[in-house]
């Protein structure tokens, strides 16, 4: 039986691997734009454009349906076409679409622009995951994804800090200039992506320009479909941060509005500091299950504390919101690492694009319903709505942890039979 090789230290990979350095550079550039975009979008649409909060939630939900189809389609295409060129084109379109938010004036134009943004965002996520799965082996993929996540949050924190400027100024012009600048960062990333080597990231280079042979279908893999569905439910936490928390802070607490940026900075700062460190131990299925269970309890606690912020003085509301942001950040860190492991370990190597496309569909579905779920629960119902969200997050995390434990037992049993 061959002896498993020790993982290459991350500092060595960063020094010697040009593909990793290029991916991290691209990640840093485009997430600066994403940070500003995420911070401002909901408030821009409600306070500047004048679209009601519920209409914003429903409009973004409709647009999210496009992301579901996009994740599936681009995941399959990533097993056949050039991942590098697909990412280049998707970044160009995303940059133009983000900048197009400056011309949104009603629900219809919101749906059109948001649909394009969601199309390329979810499609690009599937393609990028497939490229990482091909470019890096085994347990290194979780470490690479953790590193990319860290860099992502460095970029998002920079973009969030920039977003504090239009939040403080409060004029439509300030919002629009910042959104247009956010789109420009994606265009810069598209140029940088041209430097990725096809031999490492493209399925076509692996198959001599021919389609891959038929392999296991993710549509018949009930275990993987379960992971996808439950991950999508837990992924609503991202919609909570992007839509629910800003609306809750501004409309339902006595905390200052500028705290919206501070909360996102707390989240990104903790992810930057701890994502790689806390991802250790999640490179196997048992570790992933333990991490997911902890994430569920942390996320449920965050929802309870967010609810409490609606009942206090400005000072108490501020303290509660900051505490909840810390809890949510730890839940995000652990759940992300666990999800990466499950999505790679439970996918056949020759069908990694299709499986990543299916996995991305879970998050796309979560993103599609998140605005409506969050606004109809936490924003409309207040404390009871937050408690509903707490129960939802805890239940989905418990289910994912159970799947991980059973998969670990199955894998161990198979290894014993193989040695015998």
UniProtKB/TrEMBL annotation:
Keywords of this entry: Cell membrane, Membrane, Transmembrane, Transmembrane helix, Transport
Any one of the GO CC terms: plasma membrane
PANTHER family, per database record: MULTIDRUG RESISTANCE PROTEIN MDTH, RESISTANCE PROTEIN MDTM, PUTATIVE-RELATED-RELATED
Record's keyword annotation contains Membrane: yes
Matches recorded under PROSITE patterns: MFS
InterPro entries named among the record's database cross-references: MFS, MFS_dom, MFS_trans_sf, MFS_Transporters
Recorded superkingdom: Bacteria
Topology term for the membrane: Multi-pass membrane protein
Parts of the chain that traverse the membrane: 23-45, 51-74, 151-169, 175-196, 224-249, 255-274, 295-313, 319-342, 354-379, 385-404
Keyword Membrane in record: yes
Subcellular localization, as worded in the UniProt entry: Cell membrane
Species in which this protein is naturally found: Winogradskya consettensis
Ranges where the Major facilitator superfamily (MFS) profile domain occurs: 1-207
Molecular function terms, GO-annotated: transmembrane transporter activity
The protein's name in its UniProt record: MFS transporter
């Amino acid at each position: 039986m061959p002896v498993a090789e020790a993982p290459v230290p991350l500092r060595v990979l960063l020094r010697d691997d040009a593909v990793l350095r290029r991916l991290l550079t691209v990640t840093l550039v485009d997430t600066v734009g994403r940070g500003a975009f995420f911070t401002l979008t909901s408030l821009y649409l409600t306070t500047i454009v004048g679209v009601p909060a519920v209409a914003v939630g429903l409009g973004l939900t409709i647009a999210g349906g496009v992301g579901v189809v996009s994740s599936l389609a681009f995941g399959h295409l990533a097993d056949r076409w050039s991942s590098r060129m697909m990412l280049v084109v998707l970044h160009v379109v995303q940059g133009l679409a983000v900048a197009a938010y400056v011309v949104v004036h009603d629900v219809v134009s919101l749906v059109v622009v948001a649909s394009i943004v969601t199309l390329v965002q979810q499609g690009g996520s599937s393609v990028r995951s497939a490229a990482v799965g091909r470019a890096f082996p085994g347990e290194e993929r979780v470490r690479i994804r953790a590193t990319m996540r860290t860099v992502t949050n460095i970029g998002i924190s920079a973009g969030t800090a920039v977003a504090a400027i239009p939040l403080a100024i409060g004029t439509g012009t300030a919002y629009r200039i910042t959104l247009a600048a956010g789109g420009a960062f994606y265009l810069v990333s598209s140029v940088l992506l041209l430097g990725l080597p096809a031999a490492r990231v493209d399925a076509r280079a692996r198959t001599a320009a021919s389609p891959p042979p038929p392999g296991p279908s993710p549509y018949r893999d009930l275990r993987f479909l379960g992971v996808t569905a439950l991950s999508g439910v837990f992924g609503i936490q991202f919609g909570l941060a992007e839509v629910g928390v800003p609306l809750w802070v501004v409309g339902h607490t006595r905390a200052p509005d500028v705290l919206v940026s501070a909360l996102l900075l707390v989240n990104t700062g903790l992810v930057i500091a701890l994502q790689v460190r806390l991802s250790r131990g999640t490179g196997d299925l048992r570790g992933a299950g333990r991490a997911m269970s902890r994430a569920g309890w942390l996320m449920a606690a965050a929802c309870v504390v967010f609810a409490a912020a609606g009942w206090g003085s400005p000072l108490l509301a501020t303290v509660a919101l900051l505490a909840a942001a810390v809890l949510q950040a730890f839940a995000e860190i652990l759940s992300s690492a666990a999800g990466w492991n499950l999505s790679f370990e439970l996918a056949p190597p020759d069908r990694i694009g299709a499986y990543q496309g299916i996995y991305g569909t879970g998050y796309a579905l979560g993103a599609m319903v998140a605005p409506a779920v969050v606004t109809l629960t936490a924003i409309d119902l207040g404390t009871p709505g937050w408690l509903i969200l707490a129960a939802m997050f805890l239940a989905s995390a418990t289910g994912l942890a159970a799947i991980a434990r059973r998969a670990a037992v199955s894998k161990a049993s198979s290894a014993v039979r193989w040695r015998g």
